[in-house]
């Protein structure tokens, strides 16, 4: 049994020499440069985290007794919370996925690649304005919380339209000459297909929504199926970054082109049924339970196979000697992989509505964020990576500490939720609403707070490191080649 499993995993790996792969990459035109579309999407992804942090700070400051009287609208801070969640999860994830997609095709993104990030920026700006729409009702729906106001909804629609349009164009372009290895490129393409499926599922659910429902029901279930499919896009992006990280860390591609294409096809294929689940309407059990079961059984098998292949690849080939990025990338992979495994385990324990549910998704989304953080480090160090190795060594030394710190913080944070859930702590309850009854719930809240603080510190450190490097793009373009190709 062991030998058969080993044979299956071994068949997924290529065996080119380190020198051959590096020489092949160095010889490609445009390698070592960042296309304009990729840079714009990256700025939006990282910038959304900055604004999300400021909004969360506004929520905290707004609770101070000498500040609150100056803001008469009691819903203002909940609106800030909604915008914060959308920026920290939706905009961050899908803007960075778009940046990866731009790297896949070596700069040939055309006018669509240049204009769509601008439209997305406008959409995000309008979303932020929605926090200041006096009297607008925040709706804390699962997956995509919203503000029930045309300003916010229009901004959210503009952002998603820009992302969908970009991927519609990007998926028509062949993979050649980009910075991503072939196996990772397949993951990015699969994420794009999942995003398009989520859009179709949303349209189908809207068409199947009965008239006269209240705002919470409308927004909860019109985005329910799409939200589940978006998690597939997140996972595809995470796996793609794993493959990119380990290719850089070991000097060898992890999966063969054929194996990666097959695995990502298997990951996405079941979710082509998602739009069909609305056949009996958006409030029918087929749609509601079917979306959950599709996500529950449709993701973890492929993730498990890729995880085993990645671990075996690291053990077989080791790290590239002399590359300061290798150890940091291995640390980022370990942090992301452990979080996704914890997320799977916690998800399997869910039996009722309590804080085990946020424990599960904070671990799973933390795994995606940890991978994307490592991906941003790869992204900002990609231009002139060979000539700038000394300058980027400082970045990678810091990343080697920052990535595990974030992983630890997010793990402890999820553990706190899990402990509270074991003792029956309810979801979406804050302050006096929590009804904390015993030492177990108090312990869970304390652990959660400690982990959250560690994760926040790691997140701020990440922003400091990458914004310093991204500012270098503006200060000294002549120091390394940055392509103006679109």
What are the main properties of this structure?
single chain, 486 residues, mainly alpha, two-stranded antiparallel sheet, 2 strands, disordered N terminus, disordered C terminus
Task: Briefly say what this structure is.
By secondary structure, the chain is mostly helical.
Task: Round the mean pLDDT to the nearest integer and report it.
Answer: 84
Give the termini distance in whole angstroms. 50 Å
Strand order of the largest sheet: 1-2
Q: SSE order, as H and E?
A: HHHHHEEHHHHHHHHHHH
Largest sheet: 2 strands, antiparallel
- Our count of helices gives 16
Structural class: mainly alpha
Sequence stretches where pLDDT stays below 50 over 5 or more residues: 1-32, 384-388, 429-435, 476-485
Total strands: the figure is 2
**DSSP strand content:** under 5%
> Which descriptor suits the 3D outline?
globular
Fraction in helix: over 70%
Radius of gyration: 22 Å
Can you describe this structure?
The structure is a single chain. By secondary structure, the chain is an all-alpha fold. It is built from 16 helices and two strands. Helix 3 (36-61) packs across helix 16. Strands 1-2 form a two-stranded antiparallel sheet. A hairpin with a 6-residue loop joins strand 1 and strand 2 (146-148).
Per-chain topology:
Layout: H1 2-10, H2 18-26, H3 36-61, H4 76-104, H5 110-130, E1 137-139, E2 146-148, H6 150-170, H7 182-207, H8 215-222, H9 224-250, H10 257-268, H11 285-298, H12 300-317, H13 325-349, H14 356-381, H15 389-422, H16 439-475
Antiparallel strand pairs: 1-2
Helix pairs in contact: 3-4, 3-5, 3-16, 4-5, 4-6, 4-7, 5-6, 7-9, 7-10, 9-11, 9-12, 9-13, 9-14, 10-12, 13-14, 13-15, 14-15, 14-16, 15-16
